[in-house]
Amino acid sequence: MREAGRIVALAHEAVRQAVRPGISTARIDAIVEETIRSHGAVPSFKGYGGFPASACTSVNEEIIHGIPAKTKRLKEGDILKVDIGAEYKGYHGDSAWTYPVGDIPEETRKLLDVTREALFEGLRHAVSGNRLQDISHAVQTHVEKHGFSVVRDFVGHGIGKRLHEAPEVPNFGEAGKGPVLKAGMTLAIEPMVNAGTHETTVLADGWTAVTADSSLSAHYEHTVLITEEGYDLLTVLEGGDRHG
Ligand code: MG
Ligand code: MG
Predict the structure, then answer these.
(1) What is the number of domains present in the chain?
(2) What does the alpha-carbon distance between residue 88 and residue 76 come to, in Å, rounded to a whole number?
(3) How far is the CA of 84 from the centre of ligand 2 (A)?
(4) pLDDT computed for residue 243 by the predictor
(5) CATH number (domain holding residue 64)
(6) Within a domain: residue 47?
């Protein structure tokens, strides 16, 4: 899983260097697929439930599951969420990141900062002996303190030999509830945060989830290993601690 995670992180690094005004989301997808396959892994998302691409590319009010397209070109001021999964020797890694395209407005920057901070606020509670919803509660508290909303319709998840495993990891809820965290568990923790309402709808393509009020949405995700002392980030480069 550490190697699967490292390959996902390499794909993100390639995306980070490629994102700029004018590039298409299909090109981003091609970069992701090429990076994953060149390291002997397989894109987890391609064909998953019929998904047609290797990366989910979601722009602005699109929350998750955006389908890459040649005709979809990024513009200055957009935000692009890229969600990447890789399977290596039967194990998966899963990580999403939000990339600013050129200069973005201050208010958009704040949404990105708060969402990324919320992931790491949640992770502070990802330690053996805690309850799963201690993570959820910390994420929700940080987001709402800044006046943003947490998506309810999509949640994080266990991960390992399958991309999505039990338990679900919601980004909202009461602390002290849910399964007890144990060393050796591997979870994908992934706050999705909207500038407006938390409500969502799915576009006619059957995949792309968007905010119901067309407000902006941000998404950050890491696959982590629970340890006795805390958490270990798996979707990072060697010795990396990718805070953004
Ligand atoms: Mg993901
Ligand atoms: Mg995930």
Answers:
(1) 1
(2) 35
(3) 9
(4) 52
(5) 3.90.230.10
(6) yes
Q: Residue 96 Cα, ligand 2 centroid: separation in angstroms?
A: 8
Tell me how far the alpha carbon of residue 164 lies from the centroid of ligand 1, in angstroms: 10
Taking residues 5-28, report their average pLDDT. Answer: 98
Distance 163 CA to ligand 1 centre (A): 9
What's the pLDDT at 239? Answer: 60
Query: Is 242 domain-assigned?
Result: no
Quote helix, strand, coil % in the chain, to nearest 5. Answer: 25, 30, 45
The answer to whether the beta carbons of residues 50 and 122 sit under 8 Å apart is no
What percent of the chain has a predicted confidence (pLDDT) above 90? 97
pLDDT of residue 195: 98
- Partners of 149 in the beta sheet? 194
- Give me ligand 2 centre to Cα 94, in Å: 5
Residue 239 inside a domain? The answer is no
| DSSP 8-state assignment for residue 68 | P
CA distance 233 to 226: 9
Domain hosting 155: range is 2-233
Cα separation, 98 vs 80, whole angstroms? 6
Q: Say if 12 falls within a structural domain.
A: yes
CA distance 166 to 210: 25
